[in-house]
Automatic annotation (TrEMBL):
<dbReference type="InterPro" id="IPR001789">
    <property type="entry name" value="Sig_transdc_resp-reg_receiver"/>
</dbReference>
<keyword id="KW-0238">DNA-binding</keyword>
<keyword id="KW-0902">Two-component regulatory system</keyword>
<dbReference type="GO" id="GO:0006355">
    <property type="term" value="P:regulation of DNA-templated transcription"/>
</dbReference>
<dbReference type="GO" id="GO:0000156">
    <property type="term" value="F:phosphorelay response regulator activity"/>
</dbReference>
<dbReference type="Pfam" id="PF00486">
    <property type="entry name" value="Trans_reg_C"/>
</dbReference>
<dbReference type="InterPro" id="IPR001867">
    <property type="entry name" value="OmpR/PhoB-type_DNA-bd"/>
</dbReference>
<dbReference type="InterPro" id="IPR039420">
    <property type="entry name" value="WalR-like"/>
</dbReference>
<feature type="DNA-binding region" description="OmpR/PhoB-type">
    <location>
        <begin position="127"/>
        <end position="225"/>
    </location>
</feature>
<protein>
    <submittedName>
        <fullName>Transcriptional regulatory protein PrrA</fullName>
    </submittedName>
</protein>
<feature type="modified residue" description="4-aspartylphosphate">
    <location>
        <position position="51"/>
    </location>
</feature>
<dbReference type="InterPro" id="IPR016032">
    <property type="entry name" value="Sig_transdc_resp-reg_C-effctor"/>
</dbReference>
<dbReference type="GO" id="GO:0005829">
    <property type="term" value="C:cytosol"/>
</dbReference>
<feature type="domain" description="Response regulatory">
    <location>
        <begin position="2"/>
        <end position="116"/>
    </location>
</feature>
<dbReference type="GO" id="GO:0000976">
    <property type="term" value="F:transcription cis-regulatory region binding"/>
</dbReference>
<keyword id="KW-0597">Phosphoprotein</keyword>
<keyword id="KW-0805">Transcription regulation</keyword>
Length: 225
């Protein structure tokens, strides 16, 4: 896996980096929240190991910004304290799992692999992909293609396509998409899901291809396999 460690304790970060590299991972280290966010934007990662207490922007805020930006890669949070409030805060912000430092590298490795399996990804940084028919989505690279041609998508359109591709062949309700893509736990007064689906459809069929998104009234949307 290609991993990003966001950790301001230089000694701990160096030790964890060495341990994860010994487990055949490629590892990049960022010492601050902003540096971590920049690294995710510039490179493709399979997962992020994110410290809870960081200078400038704390770990929960970093996770929240990643999710708001449409990044769905797994996030494992680290904390030296292990308080329930920190754990709940990190998970609510968008982290997928949480461990208390120091945790053996082998356990971190196992947790990350479990998170990636749950996502249905194939690991490998630049090669992590979700495929549905002739559509390929790379969450790590934040890029998507149809029939080998790159798609020019907004962050929201990309997040929506990635979620549909992750569950290709199954219907996702509007409520499910609102929760997973927008982070809403309520039904907004506007039809934002329908509007984004229409926009995504236009871009997927701009070259004249068949519409790959199926709508079932009263149920939701499905991306064909």
């Amino acid at each position: 896996m290609k991993l990003l460690i966001v950790e301001d304790d230089a000694d701990y970060a160096a030790g964890l980096k060495a341990e994860m590299e010994a487990l055949d991972h490629r590892v990049t280290v960022a010492a601050t929240g902003p540096a971590g966010l920049t690294a995710v934007e510039r490179e493709g990662f399979d997962a992020v190991i994110l410290d809870c207490m960081l200078p400038q922007i704390d770990g929960a805020s970093v996770a929240r910004r990643l999710r708001a930006g449409g990044h769905r890669l797994p996030v494992l949070m680290l904390s030296a304290l292990g308080r329930s409030s920190e754990k709940v805060g990190g998970l609510e912000a968008g982290a997928d799992d949480y461990v208390v430092k120091p945790t053996p590298a082998e356990e971190i490795d196992a947790r990350l692999k479990a998170l990636i399996r749950a996502r249905g990804w194939t690991g490998g940084g630049e090669t992590d992909t979700l495929a549905a028919g002739d559509i390929v989505v790379s969450p790590g690279q934040h890029r998507a293609w149809r029939a080998g041609e790159p798609l020019d998508l907004t962050r929201l359109e990309f997040a929506l396509l990635a979620e549909l591709a992750r569950h290709a062949g199954s219907y996702l309700t509007r409520a499910m998409l609102l929760e997973r893509v927008w982070g809403y736990d309520f039904e907004p007064t506007t039809n934002i899901v329908d509007a984004q689906i229409r926009s995504l459809r236009r871009k997927l069929t701009v070259a004249g291809g068949e519409d790959p998104i199926q709508t079932k009234r009263g149920v939701g949307y499905m991306l064909h396999r």
